[in-house]
Fold this protein.
Amino acid sequence: MKLIIAEKPSVAAAIAAALGVTEKKNGYIEGNGYLISWCIGHLIKLSEAAVYGEQYRKWSYDALPILPEKWQYSVSKGKEKQLSVLKELMHRTDVSKVINACDAGREGELIFRFVYEMAGCTKPMKRLWISSMEDAAIREGFAALKDGADYEALYASALCRAKADWLIGINATRLFSCLYHHTLNVGRVQTPTLKMLVDRDAAITGFRKEPYYHVCLSLDSAEAISGKVKENAEAEKIKEACEKSQAVCTSITREKKTLAPPKLFDLTTLQQEANKIYGYTAKQTLDLAQALYEKRLLTYPRTDSNFLTNDMGKTAEKIVMLLCGKLPFMQGEALTPDISRLLNSKKVSDHHAIIPTMELAKTDTDTLPSSEKNILFLVAVRLLMAAASPHIYEAVTAVFSCAGYEFTAKGKTVLSEGWKRLEKRFRASLKKKPDAEDDEVVLELTDFSEGQRFDPPPVKVTEHETKPPKPHTEATLLSAMEHTGNEDTDEDAERRGLGTPATRAAVIEKLVASGFVQRKGKQLVPTKNGYNLIAVLPETLTSPKLTSEWENALLQIAKGKADPGEFLSGIEDMTITLIKAYPFLSDDDRFREERKVIGKCPRCGADVCEGKKNYHCTDKNCGFSMWKNDRFFLERKVVFSEKIAADLLKSGKSKVKKLYSPKTGKTYDGTVLLADTGGKYVNYKVTIERDKELS
């Protein structure tokens, strides 16, 4: 028997179908000489800090740094049962070897190895390395299994990454949370990402608009425009001079230009495009692509490659032909694909680019949820555009002289639409049309000739303003995350930029959930706490250089050219240095939540604010507090709202509707009175406004 362990149940099911394994058991599938089970993602994780000692259970400044001597591992919550299944399967006497079928990459290796080692398994290990869940691809992968030992160095790099992130994340988060008395999540990827958002927002906030002017000549239905003129008076002076002078064409430049088709999608570019066209968040796009992958309609989505391997030419050609007949917006469109430019094995790391599969041939796309269909069609049209001919146009530039000043008119004539024609057809099929791209504007320029003269032309002055940078959207932030720090990262590194294609969406979601970033439509904007966090952190934690340095080191470890122990020793030294740099707790209260004042204290006159459980006086020496769960309101089945509290503080009374009477079981309208006697608890009374109770 051979035991196959996949990363998810859906992948295990696809493998089982391809290998003819059909007998479903409790937590695995059996048959045809195989046992197939799964991990449900990360079954095992590095243990929380509290496992290393009671002193780490509470977040304490004095307990830092936390540097485990012997690393501990824990089962992820709610996944204990599946781990038990895997342990039992690994130790079955009839199991001769274990096949790692987790995702082909650094993290997939880590997921499997954690389970393999925690189970105490010593049986021979093989590795499945595939990018598509189609039956043929799975069977080909099993026909060419790798030796598990070939991936020891990859596992070592994955383990180093996990431990390094734990050390910096746990220690930095606890350090700055204790220093500033507020939960401040700090992470190697998360924090530099926040810094990019803060920098962009600061640039927008600090931007000062400056006016500028253009002088425009109307020449045979074309418009020739001057350069930027800073002062209106100067622009008017040019206008007056031109109104009295002839204009002369001094030069004509014609340049044939070729716009190459776009590359195939990797996950990040798919997320960017889905955000631009449909407004989907990065996480939504990843989830949708994953669902389509599990339905075998897309290849593996968590990829950072824009190419297919050299042996995929015939497959890609078949899929292109399928799409031409399958996609509604391709009806009547002829396409002669050029597949060769899509193939480059040297630029494929773990997985090739995302493309549809031949499973689409037997799928009715109208049965898919509209969101999944959107992503499927987006990936499909990208493949078609990538295989189409280039977009060719002629750019024409005409320069004119008038009254000693220079003016320029530009035009663009399309010679061959190429892939742009497919893009237009696709966009025309969308219910909600995305914003037009700048390069979509096509101007036919009059056929001017050098030396051509014009009588004094109509002239006008147009006013403009310099524009600030645009706020980041998920599309632009994903691009920034992908490319930042790349100049410092080895081009062969497994991960470049901040995060991985698979984790960037989660990083953005965590920033939002932590209250450091907020969504405003498509825009991502840092909050006050986001600004403050970046302000208090050292540059080592806010710069992407740390990730670049790590990835370069992890690449060498994965190649077997660097020592994992030395890498982790360096991370520990960095952690110790970070803690030593902050020898004292801060009395800075910049992260203190702004409390809304709802009234004045009837005892001392200080402000009264709302807390989670009460309305309390802000003077610590005053004991006034109105508890939200006061028995008086609970018995009368009334929520002690902010309005009631504000009324009581202002006038000592509040009109309340539908007060419940425990004696009669009926409700009535009444006035609640504040009857404070200065004791530990505040008292209340109620007067009935009507003689007749409301039923």
Observations:
- DSSP finds 20 helices and 25 strands in the chain.
